[in-house]
């Protein structure tokens, strides 16, 4: 799994002009799922996300987590994070999981994060044409790949 994690002041996702999910301060996360991903990847990534100290403390040092501030998450699936650009000019998405694999893993990721946070997440809709808007706070953007954890 690849996650692009952005600390935001606000973020939203629209589908067909209607707001599907929106948050205030927190994290907007783009999530790419590949065939090799498993429940262990979800567990590791979810713990990493909720405990990542990227929110400012009283001294304006990034030393607080989502749990410390009770901030929100907007989670959006994005298969293009697994694009291969090694050959030619047209990206290949061969590593990206097909919906029959990706949807259950996406749903388990939502459930895992909600369990750790003790509250609901805002989400996009898997496979939909989504319009994402955000105000990156900092800016802070971090890329995490579960295959690089060891």
UniProtKB/TrEMBL annotation:
Compartment list: Cytoplasm
**Source species, please?**
Aureibacter tunicatorum
Q: Can you state which reaction this protein catalyses?
A: a D-aminoacyl-tRNA + H2O = a tRNA + a D-alpha-amino acid + H(+); glycyl-tRNA(Ala) + H2O = tRNA(Ala) + glycine + H(+)
Q: Which SUPFAM superfamilies match?
A: DTD-like (SSF69500)
Q: Name one GO molecular function term.
A: Gly-tRNA(Ala) deacylase activity
Please give the Pfam families that the UniProt record associates with this protein: Tyr_Deacylase
Motif segment (Gly-cisPro motif, important for rejection of L-amino acids): 138-139
SUBUNIT field:
Homodimer.
Q: Which HAMAP family match?
A: Deacylase_Dtd
A GO term (biological process) for this protein? Answer: D-amino acid catabolic process
Q: What is known of its domains?
A: A Gly-cisPro motif from one monomer fits into the active site of the other monomer to allow specific chiral rejection of L-amino acids.
Q: Identify which top EC class this enzyme belongs to.
A: hydrolase
Which InterPro entries has this protein been placed in?
Daa-tRNA_deacyls_DTD, DTD-like_sf
Q: What PANTHER family would the database entry show?
A: D-AMINOACYL-TRNA DEACYLASE 1, D-TYROSYL-TRNA TYR DEACYLASE
Name of this chain's protein: D-aminoacyl-tRNA deacylase
Span-the-membrane segments of this chain are none
Which keywords does this Swiss-Prot/TrEMBL entry list? Cytoplasm, Hydrolase, RNA-binding, tRNA-binding
Primary localisation category: cytoplasm
Family classification: Belongs to the DTD family.
Under the cellular component aspect of Gene Ontology, which terms does the record hold?
cytoplasm
CDD domains recorded for this chain? Dtyr_deacylase
State whether keyword tRNA-binding applies: yes
In terms of superkingdom, the source organism counts as Bacteria
Write down the EC number.
3.1.1.96, 3.1.1.-
